Amino acid sequence: MAEAEARGRRARGGGGAARRAERSSVVVETAKYIERNIPNYEILSEEALEIIEHNAETILEEIGVNFVNNPAALDRWRDAGADVQGERVRLPRGLARELIKTAPSQYTQHARNPDRNVVIGGKSLVLAPVYGPPFVRDLDGGRRYATIEDFRKFVKLGQMSKWLHHSGGTVCEPTDVAVNKRHLDMLHAHMTLSDKPFMGSVTEPSRAQDSVEMCEILFGKEFVQENTVMTSLVNINSPMTFDDVMMGALEVYAANNQACIVSPFIVGGAMAPVSVMGTLTQVLAEVMAGIAYSQLVRKGAPVIFGAFVTSIDMNSGAPTFGTPEAAQITYGAGQLARRLNLPYRSAGSFCGSKLPDAQAAYETANTLNVGLQSGVNFMLHACGWLEGGLVSSFEKYVMDADQLGALHHMARGVAIDENAQAMDAIREVGPGGHYLGCAHTQANFKNAFWRSDLLDYKPFEAWSEEGGRDTQVLAAARVRKLLDTYQQPYLDPAISEALSDYVARKKASMPDSFT
Amino acid sequence: MAEAEARGRRARGGGGAARRAERSSVVVETAKYIERNIPNYEILSEEALEIIEHNAETILEEIGVNFVNNPAALDRWRDAGADVQGERVRLPRGLARELIKTAPSQYTQHARNPDRNVVIGGKSLVLAPVYGPPFVRDLDGGRRYATIEDFRKFVKLGQMSKWLHHSGGTVCEPTDVAVNKRHLDMLHAHMTLSDKPFMGSVTEPSRAQDSVEMCEILFGKEFVQENTVMTSLVNINSPMTFDDVMMGALEVYAANNQACIVSPFIVGGAMAPVSVMGTLTQVLAEVMAGIAYSQLVRKGAPVIFGAFVTSIDMNSGAPTFGTPEAAQITYGAGQLARRLNLPYRSAGSFCGSKLPDAQAAYETANTLNVGLQSGVNFMLHACGWLEGGLVSSFEKYVMDADQLGALHHMARGVAIDENAQAMDAIREVGPGGHYLGCAHTQANFKNAFWRSDLLDYKPFEAWSEEGGRDTQVLAAARVRKLLDTYQQPYLDPAISEALSDYVARKKASMPDSFT
Prior knowledge:
The structure is a homodimer.
Chain A: H1 17-23, E1 34-35, H2 46-63, E2 65-67, H3 71-80, E3 83-85, E4 88-90, H4 95-100, E5 106-109, E6 118-121, E7 124-127, E8 135-138, E9 142-145, H5 148-160, H6 182-193, H7 205-219, H8 221-226, E10 231-236, E11 241-242, H9 244-255, E12 259-268, H10 276-297, E13 303-306, E14 308-312, E15 319-320, H11 324-339, E16 344-345, H12 358-373, E17 378-379, E18 385-386, E19 391-393, H13 394-411, H14 418-421, H15 423-429, H16 439-448, H17 460-465, H18 471-484, H19 493-508
Parallel strand pairs in A: 2-11, 7-17, 8-19, 10-12, 12-13, 12-14, 13-16
Antiparallel strand pairs in A: 1-7, 2-4, 3-4, 5-6, 8-9, 14-15, 18-19
C-alpha cells in the first residue's frame, strides 16, 4: 500500500506545514493516488473503434456543434479553419484531432501539501467525492436541503478519508448561501479545512476568475501561473451544445493553465442515441470539439476527456445507474480516450436508490469496478452519491470511501516473485495442514488482504449482541468518529487571513442573488 | 435477449410438457444461458501463468496429494504410474496434464424440459443458486434453521426466476429431515417443482447412487447412461486432501457419465498461502489431481475446474468476501482453466453480511461482475447467499437473481451494425435536441437497456408516498409475488408417482439418522 510519506519536500503555504502536521497527535493517513498495475478491460474491437472515430469526424464535419452566445469562440473557430454558420461550427475532418495533439497526456495537480499532489493521466487513478447535489441525507436528519455547514462536514470527511486523493468541488450545494457567493465559501472550505487538491467554480466565468485569485493567495501568484492547482468540471450540454457559461469558465481556466474536465453529460436515450455505439460516437465528437477548443484558447492547457454516461428507464424516464449499458459505454470511452492520448474521467458511486441500501451498493459497486478497469484517471463522484445525484449522503460517503480501498488493492496487480509463489509455505504445510501459523503467513499477512474499516466481519452472535446493525448504522457511527477526530491541517495564519479577507470583500461587493 | 423459446423439440418426461406449458396462463420466462460476446479479463501475464503451471507440477511431483480411506483410488493411481506411499500420491511431472486431456471442454446438461438444457463450457455461463446453508432468513421470520418447506420455496423461486438457468442443489439444508434421507426429498423437489437442470447428492456414495436412480426414473435409464443430467459439487479438502466421501460420490457420477465440479474450497491464509500466486498454484495442483482422477474412473467423464476462493480477515479469522484478492484469484483461475481446456466454476453472490444490506450488495456485486469477466462457465451460489454461506436469504435470492439480468445484458457485448451506430438519429436530433421521440429511439428502446424488475426507479415523492421502502422490503414483496404466481411445470403422473414411490421405499428401508 502506497501511503503518502513525508518526501522531504518543502511544504508550500507558509512552509513547515508538513513538519507541524507530523508533530500532531492524530495521524491522518492518505493513500497515494492509484497507479495501475493491471490491464484495462477492452470491450471494443479495433473495427468498432475505427467506426466510432470515423463517424465522430462525420458528426463534426457534417452536423457540427453549437457554441451558444459566444462570439469570441466563433472567431477562434473561424481562425482555426472551421466552417461557422450562425452559432453552428463544422470542423473539417481531422481538424479537431490535430488541435488536440497539444493537450498533455498527463499533468500534475498540485495540492498545498505537496504530499497530496496527484498525477492525472497514464496509469493513474485519482479519486474525488460526489459533486453537485442540492440535498443531503443522514440517518438522524433524513433528507433536507444542503447547507454550508453540511458542505464543511463533507470536506472534513474527505480530509479524513484514507482512500480519497482529492477534496472535490461542490460536494453539496450550500443552498443557504446566495448563489452568487457560495463558490467563495466552498473554495474557502476546501482551502482551509483540507490540504488535498480541489476543484474551481464553473457557474460563471467571473467565479472561475475568483477561484484563480483565491488560488493565487493560497499558492502564490507565480506558482499558479506555472502549475496546475485546480481541476474543474465543464459539462457539455449534450447533444453537441457548448454554452457560454461553461465555456466561459473553461476559457478562464485554460488561459491560466488550470485543468478542465470536458465532459458530455448523457442520459442515454435522452441526450444521446439509445445505443452504445451511437452514444460513444456522440461523446467522442463532443469531447473532441471541446478539447480542441481548449487548445485554441491556450495550447498545452491541461484537459481531461470526460464521459458522464448513464441509461434511462424507458418506462418512467428516470435515469438508471450501474447498468450494463453504462458500463459498456464507460469501457469504450476509455479506449477512445487512450487513443487520443488524453487523461480520462468517468464512473463514480452512481446509484438511483433513495437510501444507502442494497440497491445503492449494487449500483455503486457495478460502477466503481468498471471505473477501475476502464482506465479512468480521474473519478469524480467516487463516494457519497445518492438518489441519482440529487443527494449527498453522509453514510454512503464513508461506505463508498471504504470500498475505494478495494480498488487500491485490486490495482496493485499480482506479485509473482518467489515470496508470492509461496512454495516454501506449501511444502511446510503439506496435505491436510493449515496455513494460519506458518512462517510465510506470519511474514505476509498484514499486507496480504484488503480489510474494510467499516463492514461487519463479526460472528453472528457477536454482531447480534451488539444490536444487529446494518451497514447504514455502522456508517453513521463512522461518520461521527471521523468528524470527532478531524484535525485541521496547518495553514499559515497570514494566508488564512488573506483568504478570509478576500471572501469578505467579494461578498460585500455585490448583493445576494438566489437565482 | 435470448429467451428460451419453444424449439419444436419433443419434451421428455411424458411428452407434451412443453405444449401443455404453453397453454397455461402464467408464462414463466427463463433466459437462455449466457453466451459471452465480450472478452475475458486476463489479469495474469504469460510469465505468471507459466510459473504457476510449473510450480503446480512441482507440488504434484514432490509433495503429492492424499487420497484418504480409499484403497481403490490408490490402486488406480498406482496403475496409472503415480508414486503411492501410504495415502500420499505423487504424480510424475506431466501425468495429470496428460490424463486431463480426455475430459470434455464442454458438455450439455439435460433438463427434463429440453428448452432448459444448458451447455457448460466454452463461452457459456450457467447460473445456479446458493448451495449449502443450514439457516434461512427472511424479513418476517428472521434467521432460523432451514426446513424442507423452505427448500421447496427456494426451488419454486428458482423455477420462477428468469435469469436463473439451473435449479441448483442444496439450496438450503432441510434440517427437519434426517441427514440420511434429506437428499431424497431435495431431489424430489428439484425434479417435480422445477423443470430446470439440477445437482445430485455428494454426502455419501450411496446417495449419489440414489440420485442416479431417481434420474433414471425421471429421464429413462437409457437416456441417463447416454447423457449428462446432473452436475454435482465435489469439494477438495484443501490443502491437497481428497476424502473418501466426496471421491466416492465422484466415482459414482463419473462411472455414470454424470458431471462433477472438482473444487478446492479455500479461505486464503487458512487452506492456502496468504498470496494470490501461492493460492493459484495450490488450486491448480489440486484441480489437476482431482480431474485426472475422474478420468481414471471413466475417460471422458464430464468435469468442471472449480475454484471456491475467498480471503480471511487476519484480525478475526473470519472469511471475507468480495475482496480484491479473491477477485484476482478468480480471474487467474479462469485463465488456468482455459489453458487446460476445461469448463470453469467460480464466483457467486458471496458476502459476509448478516443482512441483505449495502455490505451484502457491495460484496456480491464485486463478485458477480468478476465471475462474468473471468470466464466462469458454471456459477454456483449466483443468488441468495448470505452470512458467509451460513444463511440462504429469501430476499437476497430475488435481489441477486435480478442483478443476474445485468450480467446477461453485459455479456451481449456491443453491437456495431448500422442501426447501432445510430448516425441517422444523431442527424435527425442535431445540436440541442433530444432523443426521446426520435425514430431510432422508438425502434430500439424496448431492448436497449437492461431494466431491473425489483429496484426502485421512482421519483423521491412517489417512493416516499409508497412508504419509503428499502431494497429488502421491495424484495420481500417480490418473494411473495413469485411464490403466489408459481406454477408447477407439468410432469407425467406416472413418473411423478414412481419418484414418490422411490423416495417412500428408500426412506422406509433405513432408520432416521441425524448425524
